[in-house]
Amino acid sequence: MMAFAALIRREFIEHRGAFLIGPLILVAVLFGATILAFTVGRIDVRFSGAIFTVAPLRFYEFGFLAFGVAWMLYLLAVLFFYCADGFAADKRNNSMLFWKSMPVSDFRMLLSKLAAALTILPGTVYAIALLSGLLFFAVAFTTMSINGTAGFAMLGSVASIYLQVAGAILLALIVGLLWYLPYIGLVGALATALGRWAIPVSLLLPSLVATLEWVTLGGLHPFTTRTWNYLSYRSTFPLSENGYPDVWLATGERFDLNAFAVDLLGKTDWLQVLIGAVFALVALYIASEYRRRASAN
After folding, report:
1. Which letter does DSSP use for residue 154 in this model?
2. Burial level of 223, CB count in 10 A (0-12/13-18/19+)?
3. How many Cα neighbours within 13 Å face the side chain of 240?
4. Closest Cα partner for 11 from 103, 123, 126?
5. What one-character DSSP code corresponds to residue 18?
6. By the number of CB atoms within 10 A of the CB, which of 103, 240, 242, 285 ranks highest?
7. C-alpha closest to that of 137 among 200, 237, 57
8. CA-CA distance, 35 to 146, in Å (whole number)?
9. What's the rounded Cα separation, in Å, for the pair 95 and 224?
10. DSSP, residue by residue, 251-263
11. Model confidence over 123-145: pLDDT tens digits?
């Protein structure tokens, strides 16, 4: 267990640039640009303060959720490149023999990379998202204070909103990682054999499989096959149209974490999640066998 934890920690150390340093730089640049915009007069403090005053809590809810969605999209993109790079890093930097000297099998080695992709790396980005929410409120409250419209009575309401939205972002993050787990496992398994070529191969593979089905079984074109429809379904986040987020945006009610959780968890196909998890583990096991036999030769 100590060796497995050390392997996960190694993944964080090797890729902290993309999952920690990079997001911190983005937040610092955005926050600094915001402060500079107010300082040099690019933004009218009175006007912006008035905007925050119209519906400050609603504005904060929407802004924090927007930050959360943006960071989740960033995480999905970075995880894709992490799987294509991290699962082949040992082979590329000639450290394969060193890591194989540890009392850990190849499967557990790859499993540690998958565990890092599902825990500590997304957790770092989630912490950055929470920091973004705090900085966003600091900008809004400072602007309202300069404009003379801020009140400390709203701090309690803001704290409640912060916890509700933070919980929603965390829940969506967990469900999203479980939902896209088969893609993470597939790209990682391909990277074990193909290295960074796993990036173009993983992008072309769905089209190739759908084309093969179209050629053998017929149809109008490759994008009307069962394979393509299934992959499109598995690529779409479980939150459907006319779900709670759409209903919440159409009303003036406060964001409700419980309603969001019931909607998200109820619309998630948990059988598909289980199938995806099994697929990811099987793909990693096959990749570990290839890794073991290739390194032995």
Report:
1. G
2. middle
3. 9
4. 123
5. I
6. 285
7. 57
8. 13
9. 45
10. S-PPP-HHHHHHH
11. 999 999 999 888 888 777 776 66
The whole-angstrom separation of Cα 226 and Cα 212 is 11
Report the chain's terminal Cα–Cα distance, integer Å: 29
Residue pointed to by tokens 């040099």 = 40
Dihedral sign from CA coordinates of 169, 264, 77, 189: positive
The two three-digit tokens of residue 138, written as one number: 């600091």
Report percent pLDDT > 90 for the chain.
Answer: 24
Q: What is the pLDDT of residues 183-194, one digit of tens each?
A: 999 999 888 888
- The single-letter code of the amino acid at 179 is W
Dihedral sign (CA 55, 137, 78, 177): negative
Per residue in 14-25, pLDDT (tens digit) is 888 888 888 889
140 closest CA partner among 151, 156, 128: 151
145: CB partners within 8 A, 6+ apart: none
Q: In sequence order, what are the residues at sequence separation of 6 or more whose Cβ sits closer than 8 angstroms to the Cβ of residue 182? A: 234, 275, 276, 277, 279, 280, 283
- Low-confidence stretches of the chain (pLDDT beneath 50): 41-43, 45-51, 54, 97
Determine the Cα angle at 13 with ends 7 and 19, to 5°. 115
**pTM for this prediction:** 0.84
Contact 19, 74 (CB under 8 A): no
Q: How far is CA 120 from CA 7, 11, 71, 166, in A?
A: 12, 9, 15, 17
DSSP 21: I
